[in-house]
Amino acid sequence: MTSVSHFDQAAQGWEQRPISQQLASSIPTAIQQAIALQPQHRLLDFGAGTGLLSAALASQVAEIVALDTSDAMLAVLAEKQLPNVRIVNQDIFHGMADTFDGVVSCMAVHHVADTAGLFTVFFQHLVSGGFIAIADLDQEDGSFHGDNEGKGVKHLGFDRQQLSTMLQNIGYQAIAFHTAVNVEKDGRSYPVFLLIARKP
Ligand SMILES: C[S@@+](CC[C@H](N)C(=O)[O-])C[C@H]1O[C@@H](n2cnc3c(N)ncnc32)[C@H](O)[C@@H]1O
């Protein structure tokens, strides 16, 4: 991606933001508690950014493909020199050759307009028995990001029941949600769910 996005501009200070620190201290742990990661697993980290998830999970799996469209976010991840994290600068809708044992993601799904299309792409690139472990916002009133348009926000969080029905229609099974963390911002509390589901 050649254009400068909100994420390109935010990349340098990204991990110092209190929101990132709250997510970093909760979401990787929640995923590890929900999924028995295996040393042979190959994972996709969708919207990997600076590697909040990839850096925390890399030591437990064989390889993570860290996919993102922001040059600057991925440059911060590259500085971490994680030997089994393969950085791919690509829009997820522009085709991927790989298949994965699992797809992980933190706070990226609400930046994609076509939610059903996105979860369909995940499904197509999962092995049979593979999992998704997706952290994102529950429905909110638009105050979480403030400048939603400027920050590329396409959904003000998600309704768990609607998302669950969408996933069932795609073919996912064993769909489960729980609240992984309540992110505190400007005196308010925003629940972030962890969604787990399997491809049969
Ligand atoms: C809010 S950031 C989250 C970054 C990281 N997961 C974290 O929690 O710190 C969302 C990321 O998704 C990426 N992204 C949005 N749409 C994308 C797409 N269609 N394909 C790949 N990456 C995308 C953005 O570039 C951005 O880095």
Topology, please?
Elements (H helix, E strand, L loop, with lengths): L5 H5 L7 H7 L2 H8 L7 E5 L5 H6 L5 E6 L2 H9 L5 E5 L10 E7 L8 H10 L1 E12 L22 H11 L2 E13 L2 E11 L2
Parallel strand pairs: 1-2, 1-4, 2-3, 4-5
Antiparallel strand pairs: 5-7, 6-7
The protein binds S-adenosylmethionine.
Describe the 3D structure.
There is one protein chain. With 200 residues, the chain is of the alpha/beta class. The chain has a single domain, classed as Vaccinia Virus protein VP39 (Rossmann fold), CATH 3.40.50.150. 28% of the residues lie in helices and 30% in strands. The protein contains seven helices and seven strands. The chain has helices at residues 6-10, 18-24, 27-34, 52-57, 71-79, 115-124, 160-170, and strands at 42-46, 63-68, 85-89, 100-106, 126-137, 173-185, 188-198. It has a seven-stranded mixed beta sheet. Strand 2 (63-68), helix 5 and strand 3 (85-89) form a beta-alpha-beta unit. It starts with 5 loop residues before the first helix and ends with a strand. The mean pLDDT is 96. The site of S-adenosylmethionine has 21 residues, from helix 2 and strand 2. S-adenosylmethionine binds at residues 7, 20, 23, 47-50, 52, 67-70, 73, 91-93, 106-108, 111-112.
